[in-house]
Amino acid sequence: MRLVREVELRLSTLFSDGEIPGFIHLSVGQEAVAVGIAAALQRADTLASNHRGHGHAIAKGLDLPRFFLEIMGRREGYCGGRGGSMHVADMSVGMLGANGIVGAGMPIAVGSALAHKVRQSGNIACVFFGDGALAEGVLHESFNLAALWKLPILFACENNGWSEFSPASRQLAARALALAQAFGIAAESVDGNDVVAVRAAAIAAAAKIRAGRGPALIECQTIRWRGHFEGDPQKYRDAAELEAVTRVDPINRAEDLLREMGASDAEITAARDAATRRVDEAVAAARAGSFPIPSEALADVYSPAREAGA
Amino acid sequence: MTEVRFGQAVNRALADAMAHDSSVVLLGEDVAAPGGPFGVTRGLLDRFGPERVRDTPISEAAIVGAAVGAAMSGLRPVVEIMFMDFVTLAMDALVNQAAKARFMFGGQVSVPMVVRMPHGGGINAGPQHSQCLEAWLAHVPGLKVVCPANAASAYALVRAAIDDDDPVVVVENKALYSRKSDLPEPLPIAKIGRAAIERQGRHVTVVTYGAMVAVALEAAQQLQGEGIDVEVIDLRTLQPWDEDTVLQSLSKTHRLVVCHEAVTAFGVGAEIIARMADVGFDELDGPLVRVGAPFMPPPFAKTLEEWFRPDAERVIAAVKRAIA
């Protein structure tokens, strides 16, 4: 969680310094969701993420320098600088990609779960989506298909209460739990700022999914500290609400818990420093990266030709 | 050499691909138990079982989206979209996901999936069940688009599409499904991107694909009687299309007509003609002429649909303009 936080805050700085092209969506305040859910996933389990996906990627085990290289538009990045923040992916750890289209990861994860089932891999698929995606039609189709075919998939709904610039109250007539339950999908809601609770729910759900009991949904109620994108002035958000967001800090809560469990302040500070160092090193590596070459990009639009028939 | 229906050739290609590779799975509305709305997948459920031949709900977006995820996770899914008109519901999965995954993930992954979809009129199916929308898909970098004209190319192109590591759209003209033609032995597997010269000629090149190949051949036959010798090229693949074969033919005939059932404006014909007006400029001895449907939705009533769809008469008129 600390590493995700350090990454996000550093990205914020790099973005305002003009070192990151395009735009980025940060998950500051939502770290417990990514980390808690990913704790239940194995390396070969597959994950479809979304536009606010940095935490998901890091929690799934992506290499930090290659992650920064990609977001900073470098040739050595995960995607060779073709994708950027919204398309970070690492097939070697089952991370099927962040996604720039709200809800689009849903059927991709459903299809990945179908592949696990048909190939009897014993693995599961997982998809992170926000409450905003509840309004997308393909989400409902995906729920139906996953439940109908009893696919091994964990739906992780990250409910931060905001659909871009609009609150859930003006966007949604239904809640995630009720929707999932309407399709017969086992669903529960947890405090998404409590990493222990998220992790416990994810491990329990994943075990049932792996045992062949079909899909499950976990709604993680959390808080979006930042704007929809970095640089968003958030004029649509109440000043008092904005001021209150940092009062619920999933990392402070986790650190308090660690202290209760006997961790010393020195150990906690050391963990924080270690995360900072890792980010420093990754950013230094990314700055040293080269810029992508058009001919290489063009070559990857299609797969290399294989020998086929006449 | 045996004579089979176009739809049977597709069926045979699907069956052979599934027998050859256990990662090939079929997804689509009514493709399993009912055997497909046009009977193309008949018998495959019995042969390959419900795990690999799946009836899906009426959820085009989720089916094609799931095919993307499945293809990224080790399967080679073949999706049937009941009518090409319904692909509008799956455009995010096709355009933003399937077509871009390889590129935007830096070549980490390929998306070996096939989406089959029938286009075209002739059965009075009306404005939402008759469109030819292939130009949309050919316009998207990352997709390949093929369109067979007979049983042999249907078999060959479906096999090639399934073997291909990239997303391939197979456009099947629904008026062809019941039409019989030769399926040669040994069964051919096509090379995607290669056209076939269906008829040699000296005076004018007619480039076409799908159901219009037979129409162009009929026109050529009639024009032969008037002393006009027409070369007919079946493109077979629309993206990537076989520019070399078309240019070579043009350098022999110096006249070009492109025909398709889709509306003329902004169509496949526009691309071919624009390209030939550039790289083939020195070869040209006449206007580059397009034949297609008028710019309107496909109409329902028999008289209207017959008038709407390009026929041999229209191809003949176009050829005469090209050689005038």
SSE inventory with pairings:
The complex is a heterodimer of chains A (310) and B (324).
Chain A: H1 2-16, H2 31-38, E1 46-48, H3 54-59, H4 64-71, H5 105-119, E2 125-130, H6 137-148, E3 153-159, E4 162-163, E5 166-167, H7 176-182, E6 186-191, H8 195-210, E7 216-221, H9 239-244, H10 250-260, H11 265-287, H12 294-299
Parallel strand pairs in A: 1-2, 2-3, 3-7, 6-7
Antiparallel strand pairs in A: 4-5
Helix pairs in contact in A: 1-11, 2-8, 4-11, 5-6
Chain B: E1 2-5, H1 6-20, E2 24-28, H2 44-48, E3 53-55, H3 60-71, E4 76-80, H4 91-104, E5 114-119, H5 134-138, E6 144-146, H6 151-163, E7 168-173, E8 180-183, E9 196-199, E10 204-208, H7 212-224, E11 230-234, E12 237-239, H8 243-253, E13 256-263, H9 268-279, E14 289-293, H10 302-308, H11 312-323
Parallel strand pairs in B: 2-3, 2-4, 4-5, 5-7, 6-7, 10-11, 10-13, 13-14
Antiparallel strand pairs in B: 1-8, 6-12, 9-11
Helix pairs in contact in B: 1-6, 3-4, 7-11, 8-9
